[in-house]
Design goal:
The protein has five helices and eleven strands. The protein is α+β, with helices and mostly antiparallel strands and about 210 residues long. Strands 1-4-5-6-7-8-9-11 form an eight-stranded antiparallel barrel. Helix 2 crosses helix 3.
Length: about 210
């Protein structure tokens, strides 16, 4: 075989091509883990006001008294203990199977608690966390790369109206993931042992955790 010398300018061009492959236009790939999802905001659905009846419930136009109560509670207690201080503040996926969660411990001081060594699995549009028999399942929006957690609050007042003491009950996770709006109202009546004549306001909220 005859040896054919390669012109020096060809070698130079090859060297430049190799160097250009490592420029800022093509940075090295960083590892995906650990990957943190932090609480970024929330969105509440429209309120649903109903009057509890012997047969179930019927939609109503609530009294100004009850509307003002719901407005006040959502701007004070709910905002402090749920809205701005949701019980999960951050989720960190440490590797392909393990995660750690940061929980809100005391909304009045901002103190948090870190829980690590949780196992997790992503299947379809759900992400499941487990540890020692404890299970939490949240929605995972793969298109937006966002974890979405549902919470529902039931505001209610007894039939005595102005003489009654309004209250509220908050539930989250699996409780409101498995219900549509109508079923949530029924669940709220049963959960709070409401009776005919009571007024109920159901508000579902979705919290977002994003990278």
């Amino acid at each position: 075989m005859k040896f054919v010398p390669v012109p020096i300018y060809v070698l130079l061009l090859l060297g430049i091509a190799l160097l250009s492959s490592c420029t800022e236009d093509d940075p090295p790939q960083l590892p995906e883990f650990p990957k943190a999802y932090s609480l970024s905001g929330y969105e509440s659905a429209d309120r649903e006001y109903v009057l509890v009846t012997e047969q179930g419930y019927t939609p109503i136009t609530p009294s100004d008294y009850f509307v003002n109560y719901v407005d006040t509670m959502r701007a004070t207690d709910w905002l402090l203990f749920v809205g701005d201080n949701f019980f999960i503040q951050e989720i960190v996926l440490q590797n392909e199977t393990e995660a750690q969660l940061t929980f809100m411990d005391d909304p009045t001081t901002g103190a948090t608690t870190l829980a690590d060594s949780l196992k997790y699995e992503v299947a379809g549009q759900e992400i499941t966390f487990t540890r020692d028999g404890f299970v939490m399942v949240f929605d995972y929006n793969s298109g937006a790369d966002r974890i979405e957690i549902c919470e529902v609050t039931f505001h209610f007042v007894e039939e005595e109206g102005l003489n009654g003491t309004p209250s509220y009950f908050t539930a989250g996770g699996e409780f409101c993931r498995t219900f549509d709006s109508e079923d949530l109202t029924t669940a709220g009546i049963e959960q709070n042992v409401l009776k005919a004549g009571d007024t109920l306001c159901t508000v579902a909220t979705t919290f977002f955790l994003e990278p």
